UniProtKB/TrEMBL annotation:
ABC transporter domain span: 14-241
Alphabetically ordered keywords of this record: ATP-binding, Cell membrane, Ion transport, Iron, Iron transport, Membrane, Nucleotide-binding, Transport
PROSITE patterns in UniProt: ABC_TRANSPORTER_1, ABC_TRANSPORTER_2
Pfam family membership, one: ABC_tran
InterPro entries: AAA+_ATPase, ABC_SmlMolc_Importer, ABC_transporter-like_ATP-bd, ABC_transporter-like_CS, ABC_transpr_FbpC, P-loop_NTPase
Protein name according to UniProt: ABC transporter ATP-binding protein
Organism: Herbaspirillum robiniae
GO MF term (any one): ATP binding
């Protein structure tokens, strides 16, 4: 992971071409083409088992494609022969179950990616405080994760995802463990945060309303294929596929 500079992160475009993956001869993703312009958000919708998380794992470098390619900007990060390691892709990730270390403090969790990148403690502390402020959690740094509510834990996970200024953020159903009111408000906050940061994002959800609140384009998968795509134009979504 590149050492953070302290400057706001600039997103990079994502280009997916003919992406495919099979497990035990069974196609899980087929002929996926996606274009995510720099600084925009693409939401992935679709029924359980349609391949949403698998597609995120391919973007993250946690899976290798069987066919096709993934480019971040002009950089080829994955094809049948190439697979850039996840920590070299400049990504932040937020999962449904938060994936925080419960025994560690909030500061410890959020600062972990910087520690891994070898950032010295004073700079780390400054950056952790800035990331926590961005998600509205200025005063909880010394608390243990287990002493926070679900919504607060997801904000911590968000702060950890942005602290190293990733060029791309990946979200896998980050709000589905939260109650409806919190989901609606946190979804808006994530949208505002992405706009402020200018980070490119791919956001998996089951919820069309959530997708349309956040995303510039919404792509629906079914049985591993793109079956529908729409782009936002003003307050409307226009079908593109
Ligand atoms: N490592 C694996 N080995 C074999 N099959 C897998 C593996 N990972 C995923 N699959 C299969 O791939 C398909 C897509 O799974 P995936 O987790 O991407 O779905 P999803 O759209 O994220 O579903 P959900 O909405 O329930 O999270 C499923 O049929 C799943 O069983
Ligand atoms: Mg999933």
């Amino acid at each position: 992971m590149a050492a953070p500079t302290g400057k706001p992160s600039a997103g990079t475009s994502i280009s997916v071409r003919g992406l495919g993956l099979s497990f035990d001869g069974q196609a899980v993703l087929s002929e996926i083409d996606l274009e995510v312009p720099a600084g925009t958000t693409l939401a992935l919708l679709g029924p359980s088992g349609c391949g949403k998380s698998t597609l995120l794992k391919l973007l993250a470098g946690l899976q290798k494609p069987g066919a096709g390619s993934i480019r971040f900007g002009t950089e080829l990060v994955a094809d049948a022969r190439t697979c850039v390691a996840p920590e070299r892709r400049g990504l932040g990730m937020v999962f449904q179950d938060y994936a925080l270390w419960p025994h560690m403090t909030v500061d410890g969790n959020v600062g972990f990616p910087l520690e891994m990148a070898g950032v010295a403690r004073p700079e780390r502390e400054r950056r952790v405080a800035a990331a926590l402020a961005r998600v509205g959690l200025e005063h909880v740094g010394k608390r243990r994760i287990s002493a926070l509510s679900g919504g607060q834990q997801q904000r911590v996970a968000l702060a950890r995802a942005i602290v190293a200024e990733p060029r791309i953020l990946l979200f896998d159903e980050p709000l589905s463990n939260l109650d409806r009111d919190l989901r609606v408000s946190l979804c808006r906050e994530i949208g505002d945060l992405l706009a402020q940061l200018g980070t490119t994002a791919v956001y998996v959800t089951h919820d069309r309303e959530e997708a349309q609140t956040l995303a510039h384009q919404v792509v629906t998968l079914k049985q591993g294929r793109v079956v529908h795509a729409s782009h936002r134009s003003g307050s409307q979504y226009n079908e593109t596929f």
